[in-house]
Specification:
Blueprint: H1 3-13, H2 37-51, E1 57-67, H3 70-83, E2 87-90, H4 99-103, E3 107-110, H5 118-136
Parallel strand pairs: 1-2, 1-3
């Protein structure tokens, strides 16, 4: 990822408290040379499945997902923290995510109706998680 993506992600992830930290698990994309996209996505799906923590709530990020308001994300975060559940947000590679990953998700969420580069989604998601956490704490970061 470009340095600005890494810097943006780190800026928001370092603001999170230990009880709501963001752990980034970055998987190397599959080699696309002479392979059809469905095959590439299924190979990536195997790596994704092995990286998902046991018991995690699986959330796929996809522009066709449900548009979630920040306050709703804060409600989810509050419930996850109360229940001791870890969410696992899955951002696809350049070709997206395999159908098996999408159908196995507990939720499919859209940060935007636009197709966004996966690096940008990483930064936006980190910011939204920080904003959601700030709402749960009545912190002044979020203004309505």
């Amino acid at each position: 990822m470009p340095a600005w993506i890494q810097a943006g992600f780190e800026e928001y992830s370092k603001r999170m408290p230990p009880e709501a930290r963001i752990d980034l698990i970055e998987l190397k994309p599959e080699d696309r040379a002479s392979k059809l996209v469905p095959k590439v996505l299924e190979q990536e799906a195997l790596r994704i499945e092995s990286a998902i923590p046991k018991g995690a709530v699986r959330i796929v990020l996809d522009e066709r997902g449900v548009a979630v308001k920040t306050t709703q994300l804060a409600d989810w975060l509050r419930a996850w923290m109360a229940d001791g559940v870890s969410p696992c947000f899955m951002i696809g590679s350049a070709d997206g995510l395999a159908p098996s990953i999408k159908t196995g998700a507990d939720k499919t969420m859209a940060l935007s109706g636009c197709t966004l580069p996966h690096g940008m989604v990483r930064v936006m998601l980190a910011e939204q998680l920080y904003r959601a956490w700030s709402i749960t704490q009545n912190h002044p970061y979020h203004r309505e």
